[in-house]
Structures
1.
Amino acid sequence: MTFHGNSRTVLAVDLDYFFAQCEQLRRADIKDKPVVVCVYSGRSKDSGVVSTCNYIARNFGVRSGIPITQAKKILSGNQAAVFLPIDREYYESISERIMAILRTHSTLWEQVSIDEAYLDLTPEANGDLDLAKEIGYKIKIEILEKENLTCSVGIGPNKLIAKMAADSVKPNGLTIVSSEMVRPFLDPMPVAKLVGIGPRTEQKLNELNIKRIGDLARHDENALIAEFGNNLGPHLKHFAMGIDEDPVQQRTTGQFSRIVTLKRNTSSLAFEVELNSLCKDISQKLETRGLRCKSVGIIAISSDLRTKNRSKTLDAPIFTAEEIEETAKGLFRSFFEEGETLVRRIGVKVSEFTTFERFKNDSVLTDFLA
Ligand code: DCP
Ligand code: CA
Ligand code: CA
């Protein structure tokens, strides 16, 4: 018997200064220094942008997206500041382990980005926010104990409020916003804080004298439709009122791929070790997300940097590394038979996802994880 009726309990998790925190894990000596993770463009020594930075660097004014040269200027007086190149594969491997932890806490979950996920705790919490808070606390402890990382957690009646609750106290926060507290929580915030409002929408709203989320929630819907159209207008008003019906669910669209550079250029299938490791990574990612794929593709980047793709649609969805590898090998074989292309980098791509039926059943999920 459940008592939650129509109301939901949604939890959002967002890892703190994620890429920088990952770097600190493998470099004990930089923990107390400003750490800036950079996307170097390679054009000149310091060309590129800041991916993220730890909170010590943020205190000096460094932010995601600013030029590396600007970050270096800001931290020029700080001899200890550390600038590191982005290492996405490393962060992804950590992300996958975190996501695996998260999905043990709810059968209804959704990964939204490398460091962010939602869990629908409606059945677990049964309308009891104290219970939801306890689950949030357990999740934080588990991530800290197993992976040594801090995250911020938000709990609310939907994804929008859970996310904004998580963002409102960072780093290492745990914030609960009950249905009754939604409007008092949102109303005083500047409109720019509302999920989905970028600088252009913010400016337009400010021109209409809509400064706070509460102003937007109270604004005449037709006036918003006139300004923003039939879709965005009502959407903005609903969001400002804290209304979000979007369910927590695994997305089944999209694709993902892994690419590696070979030690030696080749025109034959002389990269079984690399291929095997790519397929294992892809398979693990499918498992983490509870997905199977119906299409497997290969990517071959030639020595003159031209990219070629081949793909195959399967009769039935697959997810094991062996099955993916077998299909990829077949594709590479026929690719090399077509001509003498000298290949420098290879990749494997999967798409056409279906959800993994077993994930829908709690008891079998535990078997699957064991
Ligand atoms: N990221 C990026 N470029 C951006 C924003 C983010 O490369 N403009 C990357 C680096 C971040 C990761 O995505 O570590 C997650 O982004 P978040 O927005 O969640 O930011 P952080 O986790 O770094 O910090 P916070 O503690 O504010 O969540
Ligand atoms: Ca984050
Ligand atoms: Ca995030």
2.
Amino acid sequence: MNAAPDSVTRLAVLASGNGSNLQAILRQIAAGALPATAAMVISDVHNARALQRADAAGVPSQVIAPGDFPDKHSWNEAIAAALESAGVDLIVLAGFMRILGQPVLARFAGRVLNVHPSLLPRYPGLKTYQRVLAAGDKEHGSSVHFVTEQLDGGPVIAQVVLPILGNDDALTLQGRVVGAEHWLYPLVIRWFVSGRIEMRGSRVWLDGRALGGPVRFAGSDPE
Ligand code: GRF
């Protein structure tokens, strides 16, 4: 269930690295364009740049690093406990480089989103830019999807599709894809917090209808 319409959705953003998507989300919240509260940022990495961004925005942050726990299960339990004590409604994975397990996913079923830099189901996993260039593909992009136990395998909500240019290398392509994620991800989060999208089984429902496939955007911010 999404949050009741009269309450503001409380987001937790989980990030392992740079946190530019976190920043884009915080910017939209601050601008009043995303009706949500950033309740907390969690990182699995002690010195992640995302933590500095959270501090600068006055968002509480916490490091929950797997190395500080005896096993994956207790690490997952610690994350679930932190999320629950902060009253989190929606988990937003933004460059979070770990796989969440049952202790979190069972408690937050249908309430975990991820952004993945490929046109899923193509190129799940790492190094998507290198792989897409090596394959000679003509287009690349990014996908926002509901998270399930299958790595990068949950139902895809929306994608941005970008042409690959003749002189692209992994860095130039990544620059354009991540730039597009900065409007795509907040847009999909807005759909969620306003109750427009929902995961039912393995399908995405948007505005009360099952999607036949992801909503696709070509290139630039539709708004
Ligand atoms: C993004 O490109 C996202 O697709 C992937 O990790 C990257 C994170 O970038 N999952 P940032 O940390 O938000 O800058």
